């Protein structure tokens, strides 16, 4: 059942608007610069078509898009969608400093009601967004709607750690130290407390795989990093486009 929650969306949007100016710095510090490595792993998945048009859902300050553009030397077009104007303004400022600046376009809007035509994209990616989305059913349905048949969706996100030797260290760092670092560097402990809480309260990665299947995707696979603390989901929109001759 679809459960849109406008007040939660407004709170999340407002929070990203507040931290936009410090978001990149905090990402690098908190993840020990691993965030960009994970993004590159995800991007590789989408590069199986020449000059693809890719949707970046919850594009934020554009790091996923810029990483993809750099990787293929501009032979890609990316439309980054986000509901936080301040995050997109940072992305826009960074665009002018990029070599292939025309490859990226930024659009403000919700990924749960994406302002794009059906079957417009050759691929879709979304990094560290799922935990923030109030209605994942609508999110995945929209991702599916805007993809061409046979196109791939790749998502990255953080998940609650499984109970093993790694979990206590992760919990100490992520639930205790990260809000403190956020307070220190971004002046917004509340936002980074939200980040910890959103991970703690999120689904298991296997549950997200089921949601993606339920939205009509096929070949859903899951790749785990850091003992499952960060996971990548890859899926394909079922159905193949008919060739013109058939
Ligand atoms: C943690 S940031 C990730 C940004 C970027 N993908 C990255 O890898 O750095 C999450 C982003 O998702 C956006 N977001 C969350 N829910 C959204 C929604 N329903 N529609 C559009 N953007 C959303 C937020 O505004 C924020 O910019």
SSE blueprint and pairings:
Elements: H1 6-30, H2 34-45, E1 53-57, H3 63-71, E2 77-82, H4 85-95, E3 104-108, E4 121-127, H5 136-146, E5 147-158, H6 167-186, H7 189-200, H8 205-214, E6 217-225, E7 230-237
Parallel strand pairs: 1-2, 1-4, 2-3, 4-5
Antiparallel strand pairs: 5-7, 6-7
The protein binds S-adenosylmethionine (SAM).
Descriptive notes:
With 246 residues, the protein is of the alpha/beta class. The chain has one domain: Vaccinia Virus protein VP39 (Rossmann fold), CATH 3.40.50. Helix content is 45%, strand content 21%. The protein has helices at residues 6-30, 34-45, 63-71, 85-95, 136-146, 167-186, 189-200, 205-214, and strands at residues 53-57, 77-82, 104-108, 121-127, 147-158, 217-225, 230-237. A 7-stranded mixed beta sheet has the order 3-2-1-4-5-7-6, sandwiched between helices. Helix 1 crosses helix 4 (85-95). The termini are far apart. Mean pLDDT is 89; it is low at 241-246.
Give descriptors for this structure.
246 residues; alpha/beta; Rossmann fold; disordered C terminus; binds S-adenosylmethionine
Give the class-level CATH name: Alpha Beta
CATH superfamily caption? Vaccinia Virus protein VP39
Structural class: alpha/beta
Label the CATH architecture.
3-Layer(aba) Sandwich
What order do the helices and strands follow?
HHEHEHEEHEHHHEE
Uncertain residue segments: 241-246
Rg on CA atoms, Å: 17 Å
Strand numbers in spatial order across the main sheet: 3-2-1-4-5-7-6
Task: Work out the number of β strands.
Answer: 7
What integer is the average pLDDT? 89
Portion of residues within helices: 40-55%
User: How would a textbook summarize the main sheet?
Assistant: 7 strands, mixed
Give the distance, in angstroms, between the N- and C-terminal Cα atoms: 38 Å
Q: Domains counted in the coordinates: how many?
A: 1
Number of H- or I-type helical stretches:
8
């Amino acid at each position: 059942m679809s459960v849109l929650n406008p007040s939660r969306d407004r709170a999340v949007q407002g929070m990203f608007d507040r931290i936009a100016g410090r978001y990149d710095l905090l990402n690098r510090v908190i993840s020990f610069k691993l965030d960009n490595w994970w993004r590159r792993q995800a991007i590789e998945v989408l590069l199986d078509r020449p000059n693809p048009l890719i949707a970046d859902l919850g594009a934020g300050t554009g790091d996923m898009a810029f990483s993809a553009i750099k990787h293929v030397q501009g032979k890609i077009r990316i439309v980054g969608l986000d509901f936080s104007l301040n995050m997109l303004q940072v992305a826009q400022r960074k665009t002018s400093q990029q070599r292939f600046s025309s490859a990226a376009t930024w659009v403000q809007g919700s990924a749960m009601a994406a302002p794009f035509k059906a079957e417009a994209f050759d691929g879709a990616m979304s990094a560290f967004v799922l935990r923030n989305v109030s209605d994942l059913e609508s999110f995945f349905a929209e991702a599916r709607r805007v993809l061409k048949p046979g196109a791939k969706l790749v998502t990255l996100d953080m998940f609650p750690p499984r109970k093993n030797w790694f979990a206590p260290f992760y919990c100490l760092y992520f639930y205790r130290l990260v809000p403190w670092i956020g307070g220190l560097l971004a002046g917004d402990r509340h936002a980074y407390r939200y980040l910890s809480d959103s991970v703690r309260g999120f689904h298991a990665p296997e549950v997200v795989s089921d949601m993606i299947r339920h939205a009509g995707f096929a070949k859903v696979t899951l790749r785990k990093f850091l003992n499952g603390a960060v996971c990548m989901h890859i899926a394909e929109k079922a159905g193949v486009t008919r060739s013109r001759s058939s």
